[in-house]
Design a protein that fits this description.
192 residues; L-amino peptidase D-ALA esterase/amidase; aminopeptidase; globular; 31% strand
Length: 192
């Protein structure tokens, strides 16, 4: 997993793919590919998640991944992929800084998991990473609990919260993951 941050965008890259879920409450400013995170859809893994000022940043992330042949295979040749990049925007008027965020990405080695990123603008967006092997339904459950961390922090704007599982089989129960995720988002929201 790689994390890239530049003014206006935060990108979590998972080039090999990772399982994710989402919880949206209220009317978000802008979102992309959230329906693909539903457990009933064909796509099982995402290649990045973007939290940005504007959805324009997603184009650069998709381009960066496609140039490196990371994505959902749609053909038999190496470059025939479509990167799956769910995103949430918290405002408008941003630039396409997604590619820059990808170029600035560094490995998240040594990160404390669960870890959370919270962005607040006209709406709020958050991402929590949990060290677990989960399916999309489990990730959605974690995202719903993580959303409670925003509320506990006093962030009562419409919000989109993503949960991303590392894929490591740690044996941690779903209830414990949900509690830890809510606390991680609370901590991140109160530090911002």
């Amino acid at each position: 997993m790689l994390v890239g941050r530049v003014p206006g965008a935060t990108v979590v890259l998972t080039p090999a793919g990772a399982v994710a879920g989402v919880d949206t409450r209220g009317a978000p400013w802008g979102t992309r590919e959230l329906d693909l995170l539903d457990p009933s859809t064909l796509v099982q893994r995402v290649h990045a998640i973007v939290l940005a000022d504007d959805l324009a940043s997603v184009g650069g992330v998709v381009r960066w991944l496609a140039e490196r042949h990371h994505g959902f295979p749609v053909g038999t040749r190496a470059g025939e992929v479509v990167p799956i990049v769910p995103a949430a925007a918290v405002g408008s008027g941003g630039d396409d800084v997604g590619y820059q965020a990808c170029e600035a990405a560094v490995a998240a080695a040594g990160a404390v998991v669960p870890d959370a990123i919270v962005v607040v603008g006209q709406t709020a967006a958050a991402l929590v990473v949990v060290d677990a092997e989960l399916d999309k339904a489990g990730c959605r459950r974690v995202a719903m609990s993580a959303h409670d961390g925003l509320v506990r922090a006093g962030v009562r704007l419409p919000a989109t919260v993503f949960a991303l599982a590392t894929g490591n089989p740690t044996g941690t129960g779903l209830d414990d993951l949900c509690t830890a995720a809510a606390n991680a988002v609370l901590d991140s929201a109160t530090r911002r």
